[in-house]
Amino acid sequence: MTSIVDLVARPGRPVSDPERVARGFLGRCPACGEGHLFGRYLKVAPACESCGTEFHHHRADDFPPYVVMFIVCHVVGYGIYVSETRFDEIALWIHMALWPALTLGLSLALLQPVKGAVVALQYVLGMHGFDAELRRRRDRRERGWSGGVPDQTEPGARVGPHEAEGRRDADPDRPERPGPPAPHGTPA
Ligand SMILES: [Zn+2]
What we know:
The chain is mostly helical. The protein has helices spanning 4-9, 17-25, 63-86, 92-125, 131-142, 150-157, 161-170. It has 2 domains: 4-59 and 122-170, no CATH class; 63-111, no CATH class.
């Protein structure tokens, strides 16, 4: 069975910005698609456990609840309108039971995905502390490092050499990049 990781990670091909936002919507790291974006229900993890991309820059603040309210109010409001205008025989107790429960359920179900998408959008747009990450992505794209396995090289490039080394070992798709030249006389 295809897992969410298979759907969103897809190593070995370029990743578009909408796909990065979709990764966030699914609660995955927008950079690699493998690590988790959330530590708890609405608590964004400080960094990706898979590629090390830092998430603590995000400033989602109150925006996700506004988006959720916008969606839920339209769905529930339209549902109430249709049920009131087209169906006469619906008992009042059904309305009283259905709409509050649907409002609560939809809100709770949408809050995390919407917040994930907002954080991923900030990552894509290089907002707040993500601007350095965006510059590095553009830099690498301009220098042609995004040739064969573009996306998976990105997060590792922003960490220290020893960490990058470890992560490259852990990820077989991460291509080798030329290291510093060996000192003269050192056996290869
Ligand atoms: Zn990651």
